[in-house]
Amino acid sequence: MDNLITPLEGMKAQIAQLAERIDLAGKTRRAEQLEAQSAAPEFWSSPDIAQRTMQEISRLKAEVEQWRAVSMRIDDALELAALEEESLQDDLTAEVNALRELVEHLSLQTLLGGEYDNENAILAIHAGAGGTDSQDWALMLERMYLRWTEQNGYKVEIIDRSEGEEAGLKSVTFSVKGDYAYGYLQSEQGVHRLVRISPFDAARRRHTSFSKVELWPDIQGNIEIEISEKDLKIETYRSSGAGGQNVQKNDTAVRLTHIPTGLVVSCQNQRSQGQNRERAMQILKSRLFEMERKKREAQMAVLKGENVNAEWGNQIRSYVLHPYHLVKDHRTGAEDGNTSAVLDGRLNPFMESYLRAKVDHTLADPSAELPEL
User: How far apart are CA 263 and CA 266, in angstroms?
Assistant: First the structure.
């Protein structure tokens, strides 16, 4: 059984080290303190704060329980392995393999230690220059991310969607709800490059298309930002999506333009104009918050002497479908020759490579040399 005991002991040590890194004991104390607060008679006097507190309690307890459960399974497996019963060999081998995957998953979660990594996310895709090809590429990216959310148990809500004239999308914005949505998707923000034989070119020539992905945490009620009415341009229009006759006949969709920054937010998925305006305002606050946060990070990086490149023009990832098949991330060097699988939502290897490189400070400049074609 030594071939099983050694890896189990290694996993036990790794779990202990990782638990210390994320301060699991501190999270346990925090959950206990919040539960004590929730028992106070005046706790629900402020429903919004109370609800957020209960959500934090639930999240902390789920996280602590997840780590404890894995640790207990390792201890149980070690006890069984110590019995040296040959009849348990196959079952223990399967358990060790399953635990190895769980420990790897928990190890990855420790990389998601950013302040907003556990928040829901809002993701937007914008077709770049290139007409129909780029708009079709934006549609392909939308499908890729929707497939990723399905495969990983996230919930999606389409906020705004503008279709192309001939095919594809001009832009789409949707929220992604679930654990660490923002943390995982942060690897996707930037310019995505597609190289293929254009299905819209009668001469069957190779085209290069670009689309930009934007991302920000969907913090909603936690953001304290005041927006003056004089700084807003408010427009209403008819929603173009599904929703019945009411959606088609009334100007329920809302577009907000924040004049000082030029930020534009649209929302058309809610039933009424008031609901669309409220949701659009939430998203605008999230975008302004994220803009200010990134500005502060850039200023701190300059003070620290780090190389900061704030340009959106750099391609973070290339998807080459002709003359060969390859998806390559230019920041981490991660590659996958199965382009169909990637475009069908297999993004976790790229996300994990990004998170590890970010923690290790080994992210390369995305303007590095692109693949030879």
Answer: 10
> What ranges in the chain are assigned the alpha helix state H?
2-21, 24-38, 47-82, 89-109, 132-151, 181-185, 245-249, 273-304, 339-343, 348-360
pTM comes to 0.74
Amino acid at 296: R
Sheet holding 263-267, edge to edge: 232-237, 253-258, 263-267
Instruction: State how far Cα 69 lies from the chain centre.
Output: 26
CA distance 164 to 274: 27
* All residues at 6 or more sequence positions from 371 whose CB lies less than 8 Å from its CB, including other chains: 318, 320, 326, 328
User: Count of CB atoms within 10 A of residue 283's CB?
Assistant: 23
Task: Convert the pLDDT of each residue in 71-83 to its tens digit.
Answer: 999 999 999 999 8
Contacts of 104 (CB under 8 A, 6+ apart): none
pLDDT band for 293, please (50, 70, 90 cuts). confident
Domains of the chain: 2-109 (1.20.58.410), 121-218+314-360 (3.30.70.1660), 229-304 (3.30.160.20)
Backbone angles phi, psi at 210, to 5 degrees: -130, 145
Q: Nearest 5°: phi and psi at 357?
A: -65, -35
